[in-house]
UniProtKB/TrEMBL annotation:
Top-level lineage group: Bacteria
Matching CDD domains: DUF296
SUPFAM superfamilies: AF0104/ALDC/Ptd012-like
A Pfam family annotated for this UniProt entry: PCC
Location of the PPC domain: 6-138
Protein's recorded name: DUF296 domain-containing protein
PROSITE patterns cross-referenced by the UniProt entry: PPC
Length: 141
C-alpha cells in the first residue's frame, strides 16, 4: 500500500453532443485542464453505441441501441484512463463494466463533471498481485 497523497481540486463541466465519443471527450477535457490527475465526479446522459469489458473477460462486448448512462466513475492520467460504466437499456435492465476507449457514441447528450487534481500525478505500473497495470499516485512532478 502506498502513502496517502492529497490535493486541492478544480471542477470542470462539459456537455458532449450527439455522435461524440465519450472517452475521446474525456481525454479532451483532461488535456485542456493541464492536470496530471483527474477523477470523474458525475456523468449522466445517453449512448447509442458502447463497448464494455465485463468482469473477468479478456475482450470488450459491443452494444448498439439506446442506453441511459446511470453511472460513470474512474480516473484519468496522461496516457490512459480506468473508467467503469453502468448503463440501462429500454427495459430498465442495468449492466456495466470497464468502458473501452473505442465505440462509445453519445445519443442525445452527456453531461460530465470532473475533478482535476493539480497536486497529484497519476500513472500506471504493473502490479504483481493483479497482473494488470494499476494506478500509482504521487505528488505532481
Amino acid at each position: 500500500m502506498h502513502a496517502l497523497a492529497s490535493s486541492t481540486g478544480t471542477f470542470h463541466a462539459v456537455r458532449l453532443g450527439p455522435g461524440q465519443n465519450l472517452t475521446q471527450g474525456l481525454r479532451r477535457v483532461f488535456a485542456d485542464s493541464g492536470t496530471q490527475a483527474m477523477a470523474i465526479v458525475t456523468c449522466v446522459g445517453s449512448l447509442t453505441d458502447v463497448v464494455i469489458r465485463h468482469a473477468n473477460q479478456p475482450d470488450g462486448t459491443a452494444y448498439s441501441g439506446h442506453f441511459e448512462i446511470t453511472s460513470l466513475t474512474g480516473t484519468l492520467d496522461a496516457k490512459s484512463q480506468h473508467l467503469h460504466l453502468t448503463i440501462a437499456d429500454d427495459q430498465g435492465r442495468a449492466f456495466g463494466g470497464h468502458l473501452m476507449p473505442a465505440g462509445s457514441a453519445v445519443f442525445t447528450t452527456t453531461e460530465i463533471v470532473v475533478l482535476a487534481l493539480p497536486g497529484l500525478h497519476f500513472d500506471r505500473a504493473p502490479c504483481p498481485l493483479s497482473g494488470y497495470d494499476e494506478l500509482v499516485v504521487t505528488g505532481r512532478r
